[in-house]
Specification:
The chain is α+β, with helices and mostly antiparallel strands. Helix content is about 50%, strand content about 15%. The chain is built from eleven helices and ten strands. Bound molecules: flavin-adenine dinucleotide. The site of flavin-adenine dinucleotide has 21 residues, from β1, β3 and α11. Flavin-adenine dinucleotide binds next to β1, β3 and α11.
Length: about 400
Amino acid sequence: MDFAFDSQTEDRRASLLDFMEGYVYPAERTFHDQLAALENRWAWDSVPVLSELRAEARRRGLWNVFLPSEHGAGLTNLQYAPLAEITGRSIHLAPPALNCAAPDTGNMEVLAQFGTREQQERWLRPLLAGEIRSSFAMTEPDVASSDATNIGTRIERDGDQYVINGRKWWITGAMNPNAQIFIVMGKTNPDAERHRQQSMILVPRDTPGVEIIRGMEVFGYDDHSHGGHAEMSFTDVRVPAANLIAGEGDGFGIAQARLGPGRIHHCMRSIGIAERAVELMCERVTDRVAFGKPLSEQGVIRDWIAESRVRIEQLRLLVLKTAWLMDTVGNRGAHTEIQAIKIATPATVQWILDKAIQAHGAGGLSQDFPLAEAYAGIRTLRFADGPDEVHKNALARTELKRQAAARAAR
Ligand SMILES: Cc1cc2nc3c(=O)[nH]c(=O)nc-3n(C[C@H](O)[C@H](O)[C@H](O)COP(=O)(O)OP(=O)(O)OC[C@H]3O[C@@H](n4cnc5c(N)ncnc54)[C@H](O)[C@@H]3O)c2cc1C
């Protein structure tokens, strides 16, 4: 078993680490200040310092490294994993600086894999160039959306157009006026077999009948630093029939294909968040003295530090194994491991952030450290891309089947 990264990955890692130290971390404060000075608070990707970072990332060959196909940098999942982890250390700035931020990554994957040549030219090309942004609209306020077959939005054929009616919420990035294209999931045929009722369609933001209602908040954060999470409605929205992605009834399958890489990318970046939290925790407890000795000499705090290190190493091994499986046996073959990391990572990183906050005292809850916002963010990952319980349910089903087959074969 060889745990070393290949030389290409090591070179990119070195370049990315250097980029983080020399450009990204020093720009964090500037990004925050420039964002606060914007006329439209949601237009986060127009912040000047981001353009500078993007130019440097391109120069270093770090642009679009998430995309394995000929449209991107052509890296395997195993090559991308350690890079994504590093970007997680500056979660608001590094992923977009590399054009590797959700939800655009998943949307670009959908267009690269299922889009027609015209759809790719119209929407994928500017997304790959970082000129526009996009959103993925599946979840609805009126139905339990963890079961995607519940989706009620209608997509109805009318001549050479489709007409869309429905209401969505938690649509990440959609408050940003530069999110110019939405991939919308809805039902084209409610009478078809359960997993063939849904389709996906491209809806340009400026289409009449598209309304952005409000931004949703997460524990009071509006997440404007990456375009918020919109509640929105579609009322008699008409788009050309050519905007359908793949065929009628293919929506559920595309959603499954989109979520595989999306889930592992979230987990890779989350490990970077955890590493930064441990770094901050160690620095803080070394400097502060209580009851006659540095906090770092309190047994309970040493236990948090040790446990954090053990848990990060466990997570990273599982994430790398999953990335390797995706590369070698495909996303389907890695299904159980993708579910396992999606269950393990947000809960573990949440635990580590909680300890880092506690070690900081009340300051840990404040705007002076990135920990509270990171905590709010990681908590949302226990819903986004599927709640924990849905993944556990499916994983248990696979395990029960596997055990039954093993018993039958004895
Ligand atoms: C910050 C954030 C960003 C998001 N971004 C997007 C986005 O860009 N686009 C988008 O379409 N959606 C997005 N979502 C929505 C997210 O995908 C949904 O919240 C998620 O799929 C769950 O759907 P729901 O909220 O309707 O919960 P429900 O379906 O109402 O489920 C509620 C709870 O029921 C339980 N439950 C459900 N099924 C099972 C089961 N099988 N077994 C046991 N328990 C179960 C779980 O505890 C679950 O949390 C985002 C959410 C958040 C918080």
